[in-house]
Amino acid sequence: MTPTRTNSPVLVVGTGLLGTSVGLGLRRLGVDVLLRDASPSALRLSVDYGAGRPAPAVRATDAREADTPRIVVVCVPPDVAAEVVGQSLVAWPDAIVTDVASVKSQPLQQLRDAGADLRRYVGSHPMAGRETGGPLSGRADLFIGRPWVIATHEDTTVHGLQEIEGLALDLGATPVPMSADDHDEAVALISHVPQLISSLLAARLVDDEHDASALAGQGVRDVTRIASSDPTLWVQILAANGARVAKVLRRFAADLDEVAGALEGVDEPGARRRIAEAIAAGNDGVARLPGKHGKRREFASVTVMIADRPGQLARLMTDIGDAEINIEDFRIEHSQGIEVGLVEILVVPEARAKLVDELTKRDWRIAA
């Protein structure tokens, strides 16, 4: 087995998407994983998929050495995270306990108010997920290449920090130490507000009286992709970070109001400039987002038309590989009403001409 920084066993409490993914990732490395969940069916599914073995129903004082966790990873909804962390700190007095809730300030304060031993608590948050949850959505590679925030606080010990950083590294993530407050400010902007904006825009489609959604292309799909998220979970997340989210939303609303005013009086002096500046500011914002390998770089795009039948996408990728061209990213869009797909291939700018030439030679149709 590959040497790991994480010692066996690890107890994972909560076998949804993140808990099952943690278990699958650690099991792939040979780490012994114990699983616990309030839902027997969720636990059984996670076990059946290979994320670990059921944790014995014993007290810490009665547990065998092989069943005594070195690390406890709490993967439960945000509104009960502090409670379960507190219970775990008491049940396993020699373990380091972390939680993966997407809000860090509230659980930390609740644990502090309850008098918990914060020396053994290190909150964390892997910046990874999917639109669907539950054990069936778990993936061993979910965290590879993703940031994993380690929410340090004044009582964080070197041992605790090393244990959770090692866990993140073993799962392929990149540890990012931050305070709980800084983390919550960051996710309000890059996660919580985007969820609300996506949901609110998608909700406009409900009142679509002209069947405009039938004309939808990749743009509206991109913006509303995360709108299918679980409302119950998101109410918990947003409630725990409400003030920070509201602050960003107020600024966004002010920008929207200003642009809407410019559009209503588009022939007024300065109106077109205000609209252009809003779009240009968006260009600047997108440029700040890290791309492949964390680098910020512009890529060139080539759109290829493929028949919507088995094997076509695989053949396209094989042909690009045979031409020794590296794909930086790609997106797929299906044309409305015809069995044709549009595959947008992103490459470094200097490779674009070669890609077009090689695909043309292989009889692929390049969309203008």
TrEMBL record:
GO terms for molecular function: NAD+ binding; prephenate dehydrogenase (NAD+) activity; prephenate dehydrogenase (NADP+) activity. GO terms for biological process: tyrosine biosynthetic process. Pathway: Amino-acid biosynthesis; L-tyrosine biosynthesis; (4-hydroxyphenyl)pyruvate from prephenate (NAD(+) route): step 1/1. Residues 8-293 form the Prephenate/arogenate dehydrogenase domain. Keywords: Amino-acid biosynthesis, Aromatic amino acid biosynthesis, NAD, Oxidoreductase, Tyrosine biosynthesis. Its EC number is 1.3.1.12. SUPFAM superfamilies: 6-phosphogluconate dehydrogenase C-terminal domain-like, ACT-like, NAD(P)-binding Rossmann-fold domains. Residues 301-368 form the ACT domain. Pfam families: PDH_C, PDH_N. It catalyses: prephenate + NAD(+) = 3-(4-hydroxyphenyl)pyruvate + CO2 + NADH. InterPro entries: 6-PGluconate_DH-like_C_sf, ACT-like_dom_sf, ACT_dom, NAD(P)-bd_dom_sf, PDH_C, PDH_N, Preph/Arog_dehydrog, Prephen_DH. Belongs to the prephenate/arogenate dehydrogenase family. This is Prephenate dehydrogenase.
